[in-house]
Amino acid sequence: MLKNHDYNYQFNIDKFYKNYLKGPKIFNNRNALDPSYIPEILPHRDVQIKDIAEKTACALLGDAPPSFLCYGQTGTGKTATIRYVSQKLAQQNSEIKPWWIYINCNVVSTPYRILAHIYNTISREEKIPPTGLPKDIIFKKLLGLLDSKVKDSICFLVLDEIDILVDKKGGNEILYDLTRLNENLDNCKSSLIGISNKLKFRNSLDPRILSSLGEEHIVFHSYDASELRDILNERARIAFHEHVLKEDLIPLCAAVAAKEHGDARKALQLLRKAGELAERAQSKIVTSEYVEKAQEEIERDYIMEFIKGLPLQAQLILTSIYLISKFNPDHIIISGDIYDVHSEIRGLIPGIRQLTKRRISDYINELALAGIITADVKSMGHYGRTKIIKFDIGIDIIEKVLCEIDKIQGILNHKPILLQTDKVKLKNNIFKKLI
Length: 435
Ligand SMILES: Nc1ncnc2c1ncn2[C@@H]1O[C@H](COP(=O)(O)OP(=O)(O)OP(=O)(O)O)[C@@H](O)[C@H]1O
Ligand SMILES: [Mg+2]
Prior knowledge:
The chain is α/β, with parallel strands linked by helices.
């Protein structure tokens, strides 16, 4: 690793670029492996494409298509298929050109913002402010705009990750209103398409919405290894130069992703990362060795993102384990140690509450469930039972991510009192050891 004070070594950036341009070429079109790339062919989605095409075809004649839902696990091509069909529909030689308003409810996440987004997209101006107007006023304005601007055409409203909206306050209400738009429109017609990877979310839908949205649904099954191979082969043909992929590479990526419930996104991500690692190493071909490395990197990125997204208290539990392991790697960590260290370090950060032993135990279980630590229960005879806690991933990864958390980076050199040999803790008071 290069250190800033290592003045004897100088990275020659010009030479680096020269070598890079002269070096072997792996990618022909790396964009083809981007998550947003819409391929010309979607293998193993014929049934769903046909179903959606049949449901939406009447839009070309100006009739209102039914509203429907698309279900399936993550990475099964729901978003890609809807986008693909919408493009194809737009390319048809018809006088009527349907409108498609695509909303990801994870990004545009409140009922108000969804209405504002629909309005502003159709009007092509930011006419509705981000907050402030009563909902019924926006609704009236939206109906007027649909009739005047979309006129006799069809407006498809695609609500991707619709389950997030349903869980929000007022979510069911706005969905109900959107499924009934046609009753209040004079010229234009609308159709709602909901997409979700939460298979059970229909149970949380208002029965009135279910009747107009949930009756028709399209299921996206998870891909098996051989289907993933076809998807990857198609994409690799565009993305990579000829003969750069070793023949076992695509089957390997497909097999790895098939184990993770057949997620095509994972498979493509793995292939892309393996290609990038080979490119960085100036290799002429991408071998399975790069897939293994890519897998490790992806897993590490995933764990780091997961830890960054945890509540601060859970991050502090992790910090407590980290501090004990850092200052004494041989110390056997039990739940009580974590309670002690957490009490110490939470005092170093303003506004952080003391946690009960019960709550700390819950956090330990959550971290164990996520595969970050192991917490084996051990009997201590008369003293009851405790958990023996260890990291299940490298401490270097934990250190790297904790350093990136603002509130925590300042306490990473705090040596826990239980490891300070000259101090002893008695009934929550710290005394200097006399012997
Ligand atoms: N049959 C397929 N052919 C080609 N590429 C596919 C196919 N299915 C999925 N993909 C690709 O896999 C990636 C993930 O697909 P997509 O985003 O459509 O998944 P999704 O079902 O919407 O997942 P999520 O529920 O997480 O949103 C995309 O890059 C997409 O292009
Ligand atoms: Mg999606």
